[in-house]
Amino acid sequence: MESAEKATAVLRAGGPADAVFVADLARTAFSDYGEYDRVLPRWLGTRGVATVVAEEDGAPAGFAMVGMRPGLHLGRADAELLAVAVAARARRRGIGRALVREVIAIAERWRVRGVRLHTADTNLVAQRLFAGEGFLAEANRQGFYPNGQGAVAMRRAVERRRRARR
Questions:
Q1: What is the pLDDT of the chain when averaged over all its residues?
Q2: 124 within some domain
Q3: Contact 80/71 with Cβ under 8 angstroms?
Q4: Distance of alpha carbon 82 from alpha carbon 32, whole angstroms
Q5: Quick one: CA dihedral 134, 5, 28, 67, positive or negative?
Q6: Residue-wise DSSP of 59-112
Q7: Given the DSSP bridges, would you call strands 114-120 and 78-86 parallel, antiparallel or unpaired?
Q8: Which of 76, 78, 105, 115 registers the highest number of CB atoms within 10 A of its CB?
Q9: Mean pLDDT of the 44-71 span
């Protein structure tokens, strides 16, 4: 049995120039859940949303989007992992994990309390990935997605880094 090749992907900031790639991959990855191929490209370059694109051999292979959302607590808000997707040709090589880790690093820089996400209740691969990165399931949400599927709400606390005193 061949072992999965590990990613040699390069991560970079995404922006409006990535709209076609994001739309195409969202159509492939999320079409069962709603029209995310129309929604996600609009968020590229939007204030309060950061996009990370993974490239392999100079070609986009995946993306993740994280945005700010109001927290349920006084003080710092939580960020929300809005989407993460990897092209079928690039899966099982650590790209999804690298994207999730970069989202967590962005959240740390934003100094938020935590990162929240929703993933399809049937997507056990994604749930294992997120759990492996410290996300804990908080709730099941029936009918969460626009097309009626259920979701698992997950959250991970973000470590607060203290600024060095000068």
A1: 88
A2: no
A3: no
A4: 16
A5: positive
A6: EEEEEEEEEEE--SSSSS-EEEEEEEEE-GGGTTSSHHHHHHHHHHHHHHHHT-
A7: parallel
A8: 115
A9: 89
Three-class DSSP category at 160: coil
Structure tokens belonging to residue 62: 């995946």
pLDDT at 147: 79
Residue 143 is classified by DSSP as T
Judged by DSSP in three states, 156 sits in strand
- Compute how many other C-beta atoms are within 10 angstroms of the C-beta atom of residue 164: 5
- The answer to whether residues 61 and 95 touch, using CB atoms and an 8 Å cutoff, is yes
Q: What is the pLDDT of residues 131-154, one digit of tens each?
A: 999 999 998 888 888 878 899 999
CATH of the domain at 58: 3.40.630.30
Beta strand 114-120 with 59-69: parallel, antiparallel or unpaired? unpaired
How many domains are there within the chain?
1
